[in-house]
Amino acid sequence: MLFLNSGHIEFQEKIRKIISEQIAPFAKKIDEEGCYPREALQTAVKEGWTAFNIPKEYGGNKKDNLTGCILIEEVSRACLSSSCVITMAFLGSAPFLIAGNENQKMRYLPLIAKGEKASSFALTEPHAGSDAGAISSTAVRKDGGYIINGHKCFIGNAGESDIYVVFAKTDLNQKTRGISAFIVEKGTPGFKIGSIAKKMGINGQRTGELFFENCWVPEENLLGEEGRAFRIAMQTLDQSRIFIAAQGLGLAQAALDAAARHAVDRIQFGTPIAEHQGVMFKISEMATNIHAGRLMTYDAAALLDAGMPVTKEAAMAKYYTSETANKVAYQAVQIFGGRGFLKGFPVERYYRDARVLTLYEGTSEIQNLVIGRIITNEIKKEMKK
Ligand SMILES: Cc1cc2nc3c(=O)[nH]c(=O)nc-3n(C[C@H](O)[C@H](O)[C@H](O)COP(=O)(O)OP(=O)(O)OC[C@H]3O[C@@H](n4cnc5c(N)ncnc54)[C@H](O)[C@@H]3O)c2cc1C
Questions:
Q1: Catalytic residue check, 382
Q2: Ligand 1 in contact with 379 (CB < 6 A)?
Q3: CA-CA distance, 243 to 238, in Å (whole number)?
Q4: How far does residue 128's CA lie from ligand 1's centre (Å)?
Q5: Is the CB of 22 under 6 A from ligand 1?
Q6: How far apart, in Å, are the Cα atoms of 18 and each of 59, 265, 354?
Q7: At residue 2, does pLDDT exceed 80?
Q8: What predicted TM-score, i.e. pTM, was given to this entire model?
């Protein structure tokens, strides 16, 4: 692939070996038992994978974003739950890199980079999912700090994380312009972890509720400017959607690999099922869609590396690859026939795990809104000229 240089290919080969030895063997157990992917976390920390976006001066292992995509794609190919330890570290650390002051970056990023503390991004609330600007958690100035009250749900790494970037309204009269971000550490009085959800897929990833009851944090825990944090959230998501796209690529590739191998091996009507055109065409379509998704994802990563705007391209990559992952996993089950429906065959896990990809970090419909708005706004501007 033209996007990749020899360094990328070398990195890909190196991590494939590590993943096959240290992550892939645990994927089935993580799915069946719902246990947290500790082995993957250990490997990710040891290899510097949880710090691929953090510059060296903050204790990180900064790589280009294309390398980040390759990493997440390869881990997702083995185990989507395990890849979440890397995407979660990204999501929890990106707001510090986007808006943190030097003290905040020096204090928290090395802890996240070295895996000493995990981090979470807490935006979603029971009444504010796609419409994130409608959050109703509040932060009111008091005694040199802020008192936070509110309820967050669907928060990745809930309970596992030590550092939470929490979005709350400092001005209830404003919508997005009234939102601020706060660093809240586990154990802060008034901050409690609620229930952890039972899910249909990515069973090793923790998703849970957070409760804030008169939770006081000092003023130095305000991340970025007061009232300007909606932009921090959106910029974080712009970047991290590229890595959700990479998760989709990895899962889809794993499903295609398994299905193609099965199609070559399984004999029906006296010939491998791959020789039946109906099956052969499915394999072709799966591979073509994955390739298209990979081009979009790597293009978005390369744009981010070049410091270019990525909102539209990241949304396109996330939308396309997450939908592709679902379609490919569906077809993989189909190619496996009845066996695809049985526990113990990996395509059954891919089918369930894929489902989250079109939901978290903005649903497919929201990606379409983002893409459509950018295109129509550009046209409106042109028409005004
Ligand atoms: C496993 C998991 C992990 C998550 N991790 C995190 C996390 O770490 N931090 C965090 O803050 N959040 C997290 N989320 C929350 C996630 O981002 C939200 O679930 C998602 O944004 C959708 O919000 P919602 O579930 O409230 O759905 P809703 O917003 O209620 O949407 C329901 C349906 O309506 C559609 N819809 C809504 N508005 C429109 C519109 N304007 N036009 C067309 N269709 C629309 C949606 O696309 C969807 O199909 C996670 C979710 C999951 C499932």
A1: no
A2: no
A3: 10
A4: 8
A5: no
A6: 22, 28, 23
A7: no
A8: 0.97
